[in-house]
Design brief:
membrane, Cyt_c_biogenesis_CcsA, Cyt_c_biogenesis_CcsA/CcmC, heme binding, cytochrome c-type biogenesis
């Protein structure tokens, strides 16, 4: 295949994976909508009373059927998300193969966002069974779908060769680490956001989405685990690999470029979050707010810098 054909393949794969994410989102919404009719608990006394009234068999059958439907919609959603991730991977790989010469597929904001959303999905799928993340499914698929739409509509850039500043193996190391950390921080931020929502509305209808989320302590632990994993990866990306790449590209390790400053701000916020958790015992609402502030600085660094600082950043191309 020619480079132009690989670019077309990448664009088509993005459209296909977006459609698959949309169908996965619909499946998970159907899963949770169906779950609203399934009692969270059912006692033998209730079943016996219903049976005595002549409707016991119907009630039990309806619960069984609904439970099966919930599980079926959940499986369909996960399968569609897996398919979407596979096509998403094709989109990322063919994007790199479309360049002449072939290069890594993260030379601009469009490509970085395309790859970072893939990492969010992969992280979710890897953790799905271990931590029973069915409750996170609609959030992940919705987030990835919306982000891909924004990426295509606002950030799309035709394939071009890498600039001279990007011709370094340290770029590969730096950006891979940044993408992994971004995916993990984003998953942790989703858990923190759900924590705040559930805390704000604790008494929701039985069977609804919020009532079926894990407890507040479980949400808090999940957020902490993902962000504790992401922090050392981000430290390596922003404070070790990044400066080494900068030395190769521009002859200085640190130049107070806007993206460098915001990468450091992100590091400080998450360092404060983890330090407070370890020493002051910060948990719950305060920790969730700090984590979301960190996530906001992270995504502003990747997207907002270009819009607000433009050519004032040496990283304006990415």
């Amino acid at each position: 295949m020619s480079h132009d054909q690989f670019e077309v393949l990448s664009n088509q794969a993005v459209a296909v994976c977006a459609a698959a994410y949309f169908l996965a989102l619909l499946a998970h919404l159907a899963e949770w909508a169906t779950a609203r009719s399934v009692p969270a608990t059912a006692t033998a006394e209730e079943s016996g009373t219903a049976s005595a009234a002549g409707g016991g068999v119907d009630v039990l059958e309806r619960v069984d059927v609904d439970t099966d439907r919930v599980a079926r919609f959940a499986r369909i959603g996960v399968v569609l998300t897996t398919v979407a991730a596979g096509v998403h991977l094709v989109a990322v790989a063919s994007r790199g193969l479309a360049a002449d010469p072939v290069r890594v597929p993260w030379g601009n904001m469009y490509e970085f966002t395309l790859t970072a959303t893939l990492m969010v999905t992969i992280g979710y799928l890897l953790l799905y069974r271990r931590f029973s993340l069915d409750w996170l499914s609609p959030v992940v698929t919705g987030f990835v779908l919306v982000t891909l739409m924004v990426d295509v509509l606002l950030l799309y850039t035709p394939v071009v060769p890498l600039r001279d500043a990007l011709q370094s193996p340290w770029l590969v190391i730096h950006v891979i680490a940044a993408i992994i950390a971004t995916g993990a921080f984003t998953l942790g931020g989703m858990c923190s956001a759900l924590y705040l929502v559930k805390e704000r509305w604790p008494n929701t209808r039985e069977g609804g989405y919020l009532s079926r989320l894990p407890g507040l302590d479980a949400l808090d632990r999940m957020a902490y685990r993902t962000q504790a994993f992401a922090f050392p990866v981000w430290t390596f990306a922003a404070l070790i690999a990044g400066p080494i790449w900068a030395q190769h590209a521009w002859g200085r390790y640190w130049g107070w470029d806007p993206k460098e400053v915001w990468a450091f701000i992100t590091w400080v916020v998450y360092a404060a979050y983890l330090h407070a958790r370890a020493t002051a015992g910060w948990k719950g609402r305060a920790a969730a707010i700090v984590a979301l502030i960190g996530l906001a600085t992270l995504w502003f660094n990747f997207v907002g810098i270009n819009f607000f600082f433009g050519s004032g950043s040496m990283h304006s191309y990415a």
